[in-house]
Amino acid sequence: MTQPHRSERDFTLEDSIPEAAAPLESILCTEELQRRPSRPPDHEKENRALVALVSALADSPSTIFQALAETIQDITECDSAGLSLLTRDGKRPDTCGERFYWPAISGMWNPHVGGGTPRNFGPCGDVLDQNCTLLFKHFERRYPYLLPVFPAAEECLLVPFYVDGKAVGTIWAIMHTDRRRFDGEDNRIMASLGKFASSAYQAHVHIEDLKIQVTEREKAEAEVRELASGLEAKIRRLVEANVVGIVIWTLEGAVTEANDAFLEMVQYGREDLILGRVRWTDLTPPEWRGRDTQALSDLRANGTFQPFEKEYLRKDGSRVPVLLGGALLEEGGSQGIAFVLDLSEQKRAEEALRRSEAYLAEAQKLSRTGSWHWNIGTGEVTWSQEFFTIFGFDSERDKASYKLYTERIHPEDRSKVEEARATAIRQRQHFEAEYRLLLPGGLIRYLHGIGQCVVSQSGDVQYIGAVMDITERKLAEEERERLRQAQRVIAETANDAVVAADECGIIQYANPATRKIFGYEPEELIAKPLTILMPEYLRKLHEDGFRRYLSTGQRHMNWQGAELTGMRKSGQKFPVEVSFGELSTNGHRLFTGFIRDISERKRADEERERLRQLQADLAHVTRVSTMGELTASLAHEIKQPIGAAVTNAQACLRLIDRPEPDLLEAREAAVEMIKDARRAADIIEHVRSLFRKDSSPREIVDVNEIVRGMLAMLQKEANRHSVRMSPDLTSGLTEVMADRVQLQQVLMNLMLNGIEAMRDTTGELSIKSQLSEDGQVLISVSDTGVGLPAENADQIFNAFFTTKSQGTGLGLAITRSIIESHGGRVWAVSNPGPGATFQFTLPIRETARE
Question: Counting CB atoms within 10 angstroms of each CB, which of 100, 169, 392, 500 has the fewest?
Fold first, then answer.
């Protein structure tokens, strides 16, 4: 980007490229752009700017580039702004150009309009090569030819823009000092304006091309009029000039003479003309012959025919659009002369203009912006297609009018809008307003309208303007406000204390619950440090951790559900549960904490632990009591292996005392004695485990193995009451995670209850293991005894409920507690015949509670 004026120090840009310039990465800070604090968007200012640009494009397209540069400077608040376009000649845009030129600059660099940079070594070229927005800092370090440009650029934000996928230029904004730095909002705005730059570029190029075509056509038409003057010399000069096609023809269809312009137009040569191969009847496509017939009719009647558009067939079969006019050389004769103007370029220009209008219409559709024009004097109103759409009108059926427009404005807003417009018209000023539309069916839309007054030299007052559909934005704002109000209500009514502090740790908000929890009125806490709610020993830890988080992002504690110690206004310390969240708005960070007094919960936890220990003590007492009842059976169970051991020991002695000791038989007796001793030891250890007070750790256990152990242990008790025990254990049963001793107690309780129920009659105790329908281990203990109590069957698992004269009422209650603590459930049902069945489930090892 160099000064356009030559001086003693002037130089050729291409010759100034250094061999070892600073690398591109050293002057880029694009990644930093998104990390910088960003200012909030000003949508109203942005909308007004876009509307003004659309109006400028429609009203004065030749100045659209300068208007765009001024808009960039205004919205980004930069020092200089402008456009760089690829060019070949330094004056007109050309996508194949090797240089950039600056057609428009706003701000401090305005004197440099018309300057430029090389395509192969410059910031604009780097932006197109990278195909993305770039933020440069002191780019003269890489591009030394920018050193003479004054003032120097501190930062430059460049955005590429394209037409039909081809890069055509960039828009840019420059800060010459460090009074402010570009941020993410500037990046978003520049990206949006880059899209508009593409549309403006196309419109500018198409309009310039159209001007050239119109000029050429006007020139050709003037020459045709000169041809019609009847002056033979002028006609000859015009024919030879080949500005337009000139044809001498006959009514029968022959072309007897034509200039080179016509022959080139239809791609025939002079030899074709001489040999009679060029006939105007053959040049005319079938669909245009009816129009030729009308022209012949006019010739015979008037000697001339009015110019009209048609197409000719070229020699290669392609078509060329033309404007054709002519007359008979002599009244009543059969020869005539005609001028033929090639309309190819004009048609292309018209198509380009239609595309430009389509781009503008698409831009309005995408931005939901409709444009309008209103002549105050004549009352004439014009609306764009998007205006019709926004207001719910049909452009084919409805006629634009101010009355039709006002009918759609919401009745509550109509007078406000009309008064604003009337005041603006009276004072010949622009107006701006937000209002609602009430569409058929009750649909409501929110609009932002703006109008600009234009007074002609004759004094006519006209307005051009635009309306933007801001319904989505308004609904989003209302939703945000609703959420803010809902959050405020939640915070105001919450039982937990809600406290918000800034990044300095100073409290900015406190809800009413802080009064109940901390003893402070909310107003007392505002502007106080957050550490006022902490004991002295926690304050330094919090300050150091918070400072580290702000600088590194590393948290010194869990922000969700952390248990800490709080301090009330009275100085009392108490346990709290704290959850914190962070919110960034307008470049500032706010930390909100939810603080819950968990004193009651802590006391409840302690009480639950006390009750759990009490329950464990009761379970132990029950086991000891039960084992006392089984003393006789256990004594017999232990006496049997001990007696067998004594017998084997005596036999061993006899075999050794023989004159010839039988050592082999003595050894077998000793082995049997060892087995008997181990059996007695196993029985004693099994009993000792049931006498232990503390529960054993949970482990993976085989339920069938535990059932078999209890069957062996209670066999003598069953025999004493003439009860037969029948196991039905499913092999390969899934293992469970459980406390082995507690499961032994459950089975012992249920099996002893069954034996007790059949003590006066012989009976059968069935123990069955299987998988339930939901995939859990299911154990059933069935007896053929007296059955469940008819009137109190639903109370048998309640503590201290018993039907036994000597019972404590704790066995089944403890059984239920143990099973539920393992994640299972226990229940009882009456059998179809005599007796009852007790059943319990246990989750398989994958889902059992640890």
Answer: 392
Cα separations (Å) of 756 from 264, 508, 590, 707, 784? 123, 71, 70, 18, 11
Find tokens 């059933």 and name the residue: 780
Domain with 399 in it: 368-475
CA distance 379 to 462: 9
Query: How far is the C-alpha of 355 from the C-alpha of 714, rounded, in Å?
Result: 99
**Which pTM was predicted?**
0.34
Region 796-824: what's the mean pLDDT? Answer: 71
Radius of gyration over alpha carbons of the chain, in Å?
Answer: 50
Asked whether the beta carbons of 436 and 409 are under 8 A apart, the reply is yes
Residue 632, pLDDT above cutoff 60: no
CA 221 to chain centroid, in Å, comes to 60
Whether residue 392 sits in one domain with residue 330:
no
pLDDT, tens only, 580-610: 888 877 778 888 889 988 888 888 888 777 7
Nearest to 713 by CA among 684, 736, 740, 743: 684
19 and 164: one domain?
A: yes
Residue 57's closest CA among 364, 498, 422? 364
- The answer to whether position 488 is within a domain reads no
Tens of pLDDT along 726-783? 999 998 887 899 888 888 888 888 998 898 888 777 899 999 999 988 889 999 999 9
Same domain as 732, residue 849: yes
Would residue 667 count as lying in a domain? no
Give 27-76 pLDDT, tens digit per residue: 999 888 888 888 888 888 888 888 888 877 767 777 888 999 999 999 99
Q: How far is CA 419 from CA 229, 382, 433, 438, in A?
A: 60, 21, 11, 19
Under a CB-based contact definition with an 8 Å cutoff, are residues 836 and 785 in contact? yes
CA distance 31 to 809: 75
User: β-strands 319-328, 304-313: how paired?
Assistant: antiparallel
Total domains present in the chain: 5
On the question of a cis peptide bond just before residue 727, with omega within 30 degrees of 0, the verdict is: no
Helix (H) or strand (E) holding 170: strand 166-175
Q: What is the DSSP letter of 529?
A: B
Within-domain flag for 840: yes
